[in-house]
User: Fold these one by one.
Assistant:
Number 1:
Amino acid sequence: MFQPIAAFPAGRAQALSESTMPLSFEEMAEPNEAAGDSFTSMIGKAIEDIEKPKELEDQLTTDLLAGKNVDTHEIMIAGAQGDLMLQMASTVVSKVANAYQTLINMQV
């Protein structure tokens, strides 16, 4: 009377049982990338992320002065984001320096 409903079409269950996503530790382990290169690229990306809102603010301001239709709120938001990112970066650097100084002053 009732027929069971197949959860997966034929052949699809086999594909779902196999892992297609890399494990978290597999993503980190790249033989071509040394630890120093990884740290350097991470810091470089962080600096680029900090500069993006300021560059956007500068571009929007230039567009406004050139007579293009630019919302002044966008300029203010980009400026506030840039200031916030710079303040956060400064705070992180201070905290890291403070933690380093604390570790150096520890007696072993």
Number 2:
Amino acid sequence: MPCYDILRNMMEEFTTKNAPNLTPYVPLLAGSVARSFACISCYPVELARTRMQVIFLNAKVGSMLNFYSNVFSFIL
């Protein structure tokens, strides 16, 4: 998803009309917001995947392996 490009274009249009002196800071702000979106959306899935890998490596066969069958059952 091209969040950075969309945000940068929207912010550049806004700042050129309303606050031209802030235009040089638009890429910094757009990058920060886009990275925040990426972290918020990806971190829970990565955390669940990592926990499932640790449980798989440390669990005895048959005890916890069947408890977490996929990522979504681990999150819920």
Number 3:
Amino acid sequence: MTLHFALPLPPLVPLAPLVPLAPLPPLVPVYNPHTHSLRGSTRSLRTLSTPGDTPMSTRSAIVSPNAPKAIGPYSVAIQTDGLVFCSGQIGLDPATGELAASDVEGQTLQALTNLKHVLEAAGSGLDQVVKTTVFLKDMADFQKMNAVYAEFFGATPPARSTIAVAGLPKGGLVEVEATALR
């Protein structure tokens, strides 16, 4: 035998009349520092707007007469949204295009001097750097590089990663890239 129970239903509540929703604001991109990209945008998009229709994203290449020219198909630096993204600088003498020194201290000195000139051309400076990445051909040179590096950044140095690599352009011993505020 099967028993069936009938449960009483709650009384129906009248629905409120539908109210039109306000339109959604346009998608505002969010900068992702790990991928150096804007989430919510496309790579080809050059200018984006906020609800106030204020330009949010512009992109321009930076060139410095006091730093080496790019030695490949890349920009020495890109300026966008109050940030400057600097490509890696090796210890090249801007006048000759050759390594300025044969030791890691001399190459670090030249690489950071080149980086300083690139940042200045972008309207920034070493005091505005928030993150650097240092590439070393030999991690045994870490202390020597670090001693020169410390001379360029004051009491509050930027965040930094140091990575050992198998090789660098032109046989360099050190390369430094940076992201800075503008």
